[in-house]
Design brief:
The chain has 136 residues and is an alpha+beta fold. The longest helix is centred in the C-terminal third of the chain and has 15 residues.
């Protein structure tokens, strides 16, 4: 069975939410922060299991631009400069379906690391400096 395809994508700048409607009737409202911390990029996900980098201080992040990638994805440009994540329709659908669980997991990871969603929180400094880079 083919993955659902979007019929409408709307960026809500004031509420910092990407609303996406799919042809199977599903509608997901994905906060920009959620999309940023779950970016499929190597910078966030690494190049294999265990190489993920916990994203901290992303509460106020916005999407400044949303570029189409062929007929299968979009590539957001985030206000913190992150622009390497390509979000396929199937990945956006998965994020929408699993949003509640994934968000709870993210908050638990932040708490375990002693980190914060706030960019100006001094607890984040050590994590940001220690984050590995994929060279991009």
């Amino acid at each position: 069975m083919a993955s659902p395809n979007p019929t409408d994508i709307t960026l809500h700048a004031a509420s910092r939410v990407l609303e996406i409607r799919f042809d199977d009737g599903a509608v997901f409202k994905l906060p920009f922060e959620f999309l940023r911390v779950y970016s499929p990029s190597a910078e966030v996900r690494g190049h294999g299991p265990g190489q993920e980098t916990l994203q901290v201080g992303k509460r106020e992040v916005t999407i400044t631009r949303l570029d189409p990638v062929g007929y299968y994805a979009v590539q957001p440009v985030f206000s913190d400069g992150h622009a390497s994540g390509i979000f396929s329709w199937s990945y956006l659908y998965e994020l929408g379906q699993d949003q509640e669980r994934l968000w709870a997991e993210y908050l638990a990871q932040l708490e375990a690391a002693g980190a914060s969603r706030d960019a100006d929180d001094p607890r984040n400094a050590a994590l940001v400096k220690a984050a590995p880079s994929c060279g991009h």
